[in-house]
Amino acid sequence: MPPYPEAILRYTHSARFPQHAIEDYVATLVSVHSRFILERVNVNGSQLCVRAAEPFANKPVLVITGSDDTLHPREVDERTVAWLADMGASVEFLYLPDLDVYGNGHMMMVEDNSEDLAKMIDHWIRSPH
User: Fold this and answer.
1) Which regions of the chain does DSSP assign to beta strands (E)?
2) Of 1, 2, 26, nearest in space to 12 by CA
3) Which DSSP state fits 42?
4) Helix, coil or strand: residue 22
5) At 61, is the secondary structure helix, strand, or coil?
6) Of 2, 8, 58, 65, which residue is 20 to 30 A from 29 by alpha carbon distance?
């Protein structure tokens, strides 16, 4: 396997990411448009901004965070959950280690327990909110 930049390894470093599939994962990646990068770092105030809370009112939102996600650690996603709640969303936060699930990173949909996580999400979707 060739060496990959740190940016790619941040997505694939978790204990549950199938290390044999990194090359296949890399083959699916596409370049990011420069406008997105400029918006992300808010050059000249270009970052997207939510100006109205009404669209969030009572909308069910589930935020799931894994123990190995360095891009979205618990503290970051807790702030996101608080912001969504402040906007009126009916938000639920699942930190997987609180459920005794460890080793998930940012790419949990391709990790070795993705089917279990999908069932958890399906159960949440089908539950009344």
Assistant:
1) 60-65, 90-95
2) 26
3) T
4) helix
5) strand
6) 65
- Give the angle subtended at the CA of 124 by the CAs of 59 and 84, to the nearest 5°: 35
Task: Tell me which residue has tokens 């396997």.
Answer: 1
Going by C-alpha positions, the residue among 19, 35, 105 that lies closest to residue 67 is 105
Q: Looking up tokens 């890399």, which residue turns up?
A: 26
What tokens were used for 32? 């990011």
Residues 64, 102, 111, 126: is their CA dihedral positive or negative? negative
By three-state DSSP, how is residue 91 classified?
Answer: strand
Q: Model pTM greater than 0.85?
A: no
Query: Residue 1: what pLDDT?
Result: 61
CB-based burial label for 114 (10 Å; 0-12, 13-18, 19+):
middle
Query: What percent of the chain is predicted at pLDDT more than 90?
Result: 64
Tell me the C-alpha distance between 59 and 54, whole Å.
10
Helix%, strand%, coil% for the chain, nearest 5: 50, 10, 45
Residue pLDDT, tens place only, 35-77: 888 998 889 988 888 989 999 999 999 999 999 999 899 999 9
